[in-house]
Amino acid sequence: MSYHKILGFEREPFSTSPDPDFLYMSKEHEQALTNTLIELNLRRGLNIILGDIGTGKTTLSRKLIQELGKRDRFVFQMILNPSFENEKQFLAALVRNFNLPEGLDERSTLVDIRDAFEKFLLDGTLNRQKVIILIIDEAQKLTDESLETLRLLLNYETNEFKLIQIVLLGQMELLERIIKHENFYDRINFKFSLYPFDIGETRAMINFRIRRAGYQGKMQLFMDDAIREIHAYTHGYPRRITMMCHKALKYLILKNRYVVDQDVIKSIIEDEERLGWQKTAKVLQPSSNFWRS
Ligand SMILES: Nc1ncnc2c1ncn2[C@@H]1O[C@H](COP(=O)(O)OP(=O)(O)O)[C@@H](O)[C@H]1O
Ligand SMILES: [Mg+2]
Questions:
Q1: Can you tell me the distance from the alpha carbon of 292 to that of 102, in angstroms, rounded to the nearest whole number?
Q2: Which of 65, 224, 242, 286 is the S-S candidate for 195 at Cβ 3.0 to 4.6 Å?
């Protein structure tokens, strides 16, 4: 029997997969999602969400896709690993992703592919009234050439709106790159950064995931002092919180205990330190202004 069943869960509460059902909508995650949806509806073009590793970007993108999927109006594709060597490779991937078959094969030239994509954007947007959306995760991996390709795609527009909507999700280093790329930077329509959780959000996220996983028990599984300890150790990074909570529940089973208190967390941390696996997290302050105003 799996550990979560023994503890009274229907599903694993602290898996690290980017399952949108387990995304706790903190004020910031909510703001990022709602604003992105509004901007996509308005068809203003380029939207960027930044955040350190483990702040919930990929999970948020899954949630966004879930929302987009509810309406026929949206045609969307997601690229998970945008490491393209040149413009042709990038555009060919777009054409493949959006299922454009007609007349394109290995012999097609860059111009053929560009034309086909432009035709697709024009037809989809103007004739079929669709909102065409490209979502790119791990966007810090885009080369300068790929950023330029995206910039050119944003040139397709009518007087009122862009023909393609782009959502980039990437680590903070993406910002340094695009700041240097003035032409690209100036086109950003909506920008947002995700930061680690404060203690209240950490508590709310843990409780949310516990309930989401079907825990019906009346007993509080994580004591307040444990949550404080978790927050201090993980610096509020959702991925690290998730991993710590997973270890804590496993600990309960192994040691035949019922609640996670401060001692449980301390003892896990001590074990990690003994193994030399602990890592000092890079801490971001929500007050820092990453965006050039
Ligand atoms: N708001 C949140 N609520 C619950 N879990 C979260 C939240 N944000 C991130 N997580 C969890 O943290 C882990 C890392 O999230 P992920 O989306 O992969 O981060 P990123 O893409 O920014 O590196 C996942 O297990 C995810 O479920
Ligand atoms: Mg990610």
A1: 43
A2: 286
